[in-house]
Design brief:
Helices cover 63% and strands 0% of the residues. With 129 residues, it is an all-alpha fold.
């Protein structure tokens, strides 16, 4: 089985268990997506805490294992939202590849959407940002 497909299968099983045991079977897709989005915001805050974003606080050593775990938590919620909207692993892959291609086109100034391309300086170099 494809790894992404396996992630979707595992998440579907977990999501079914959570919905049943937490009596969430009857909530709407809108409510589920709202809950998942809030959960992702919470997990993003945990990633921020892990990478010393507080410039007013003494930094702590990075815990790469913790950072990876928080990133996986984000994936759990993202895949949960994909499942809720009927998106399969193949759908996610296809949409990702298409969006990635468009992102390259935007950066290269080849997209119909303007304002993304990197502008060269007078010396011909791209500016550091």
């Amino acid at each position: 089985m494809d790894k992404l497909e396996e992630i979707f299968t595992l998440q579907a099983s977990f999501q079914e268990k959570i919905k049943k045991e937490r009596h969430l079977e009857d909530i709407s897709m809108e409510q589920w997506l709202q809950m998942q989005t809030l959960a992702m915001v919470s997990e993003l805050a945990e990633v921020l805490d892990a990478v010393n974003f507080k410039w007013w606080k003494n930094p702590h050593p990075l815990d790469n294992a913790n950072i990876r775990e928080e990133l996986c938590d984000l994936l759990h919620f993202l895949v949960g939202m994909c499942l809720e909207t009927g998106m399969t692993a193949d759908d996610l892959y296809d949409v990702y590849v298409g969006k990635n291609r468009e992102n390259f086109r935007r950066q290269d100034g080849q997209s119909e959407k303007k304002g993304y391309e990197v502008r060269a300086t007078e010396s011909g170099e791209t500016p550091d940002r």
